[in-house]
Amino acid sequence: MSDTTIRDIAKQCGVSVSTVSRALNNHPDIRPDTKEMIMKVIKETGFVPNDSARYLKRSEANSIALLVKGITNPFFSTMIRVMEDMAHNRGFMTILRHVRDEEDEVTVAQALIKERRLKGIVFLGGKFVHDQNVLDQLDVPFIFSTIGNVVSVDENTGEIQEIGPEGRQGRHKIRYANIAVDDVEASCRAVEYLISLGHKKIGIITEGLDCPSVGQLRLRGYKKALEEHGLSCEERLIFEAREGIEHYSMPNGYNGARTLLQADPDMTAVFCISDVLAVGACRAITEMGRAIPADISVIGYDGIELGSYYNPRLTTIQQPVEQIAEKTIAMLFDMMENKAKPQNLIMPAELVIRDSTGPAPAGHPSSQD
Amino acid sequence: MSDTTIRDIAKQCGVSVSTVSRALNNHPDIRPDTKEMIMKVIKETGFVPNDSARYLKRSEANSIALLVKGITNPFFSTMIRVMEDMAHNRGFMTILRHVRDEEDEVTVAQALIKERRLKGIVFLGGKFVHDQNVLDQLDVPFIFSTIGNVVSVDENTGEIQEIGPEGRQGRHKIRYANIAVDDVEASCRAVEYLISLGHKKIGIITEGLDCPSVGQLRLRGYKKALEEHGLSCEERLIFEAREGIEHYSMPNGYNGARTLLQADPDMTAVFCISDVLAVGACRAITEMGRAIPADISVIGYDGIELGSYYNPRLTTIQQPVEQIAEKTIAMLFDMMENKAKPQNLIMPAELVIRDSTGPAPAGHPSSQD
DNA sequence: CTGAAAGCGCTAACAG
DNA sequence: CTGTTAGCGCTTTCAG
User: Fold this and answer.
1) Are A2 and B114 an interchain contact pair (Cβ–Cβ within 8 Å)?
2) Which CATH code fits B62-181+321-347?
3) Residue A37: Cβ within 10 Å count
4) C or N terminus of chain B, fewer CB within 10 Å?
5) Strand pairing partners for B350?
6) A248-257, B312-321, B338-347: segment of lowest average pLDDT
7) Interface contact A84-B100, CB threshold 8 A
8) pTM reported for the whole predicted model
């Protein structure tokens, strides 16, 4: 039953608890037949050791954790799979922990480090502004992966700073790195592509400005592109996710496109800061009787698998998921072994042109200035 | 730092460990200002209690676990969200645990029960055949949700039996329930709908027969429909997921449709045992130059959100996700409080007709018998 | 309201 | 190779 302990097993086998423990942990100092006998009893009894007790006692364990905020985001699926594989190959256990919306990822991390004697952590999703003091508390290496350039805020002064690798080590001796594509640049490139196709009224579906995440960076890239090409940035062409609705979701993209198109029927292109949003937007646009890309071009971001299965196939900014995942784990282990210093690693993003974008509809009456 | 313990806090506050513990656990027997003072120090120090130690000592905790096999399956997302909410409303913590492909869900459950003093478990995804002895070992109530009618196998005799509620209680005094749609019936209905549209050559994209999961049930429904309508079941119209590739995935659906269409170019409809597969199939069909539904009809299963966003919008068997989730938690709690007996609960599935299905192309030369 | 003390189940020296 | 023993960090009686 459930409250069988290692002691019961020991008694039943006529050995001491330590011998059972040795059998359980593949310890070399045990006679093979003793071990076999013990394992047999364990199997019969259905005994399962209590992990709380094990981890409490153990001084260390070869494990890292993946803390994921927004696990339904298909963009993370591949990353998780690759990272788990890589860690496994290095003889490490991976703990995959879903961080709820209302939870703070760093707090969760702290608890987990203690509980499971973690050696390293990867954050996927979530904020990219954190309290410096809280960050200081984490005493294992950690990496923010695909979260943008993480920034710290001083609780007292409220001062925000984008700490470079040097400052990060010097002042705070924290050990963390960021790996991400250059969100501002890539977004800018996406919008520039639309501009190059002749689009002038370009909308954006993004996250609210209140939450400091990649959405902000991508919005910045959007504005930059418009500005550099002499296009004005209109309030009504910017749709921000409402509170209460999941940001990176199809319904949100759907709402966004509807709202945008109602606010400005002359919009001819829309940049969605994720592919999932783009899918939602496509549906709305289609239902409003507009053709993609003949009437309206849609461009996404992330490069999830679905993008190439959707109709029309989505033009998107493709993040090199597998490479990012590999780099993340490689660097984390380097940091764990003190072989690498914290750094910001920028990965290249690729504009993948497929079927959801095309030239701006010519001669649209009101698109003339 | 990381190895601050409750004792350090006690020392720093000039109180005993038990007082700190009381502050930590909202125990009533503590003077408000003492508590406040302690909490302040805890906050400043950034102290985080070690969960291993807490759970080791605690005799019980108000928590249940959701064990999910195949967490990338979007079908589970909604279920997870609803269940977490409901458990939360009842004052319970939910532990969401991803079960890897190579892990056995019941083994994971056993470990977790001990470690976290769970009061109940929900299994999402995974096999529906389990070793009766292993099942017996779980001594908290548990529910298989949307896994089909769970079946037990006797390790010695190899005998498989679909245990009804009574037998389940009587012989084994285990406490588990199933909640699911009638997969055979629903699949049969889906295929019958295709037949009613005049389709005769109907393919299926399903899981391998080697793995005892819902795939088998849905395949059975497919065969039943063909049989009852006097259509023969052709080997070449059945595509089973290959080993090594994720079963419920778009690439798998893509391969499936290609293979099927090459094997029999006259196929006019295909039943996919999940919407994700259907999306993959649609892509392949489109790329092969066939129109949906004019040339080929596609029907899915699950009723995920994406289905109504895809082009064409997917006809599908919709599982009442929210209701299933609610029922699951409600019944689990009833079982935990001994208010409900184990049972098989069949939920109604609905055939949702959208745009991916249509009448069989008329007068196709080779479709005549 | 607070403190002292007894373990929760296990691992890891240490001594045979 | 095996047994004895001392805690891991915390909660929880039980006294005050």
Assistant:
1) yes
2) 3.40.50.2300
3) 15
4) C
5) B318
6) B338-347
7) yes
8) 0.88
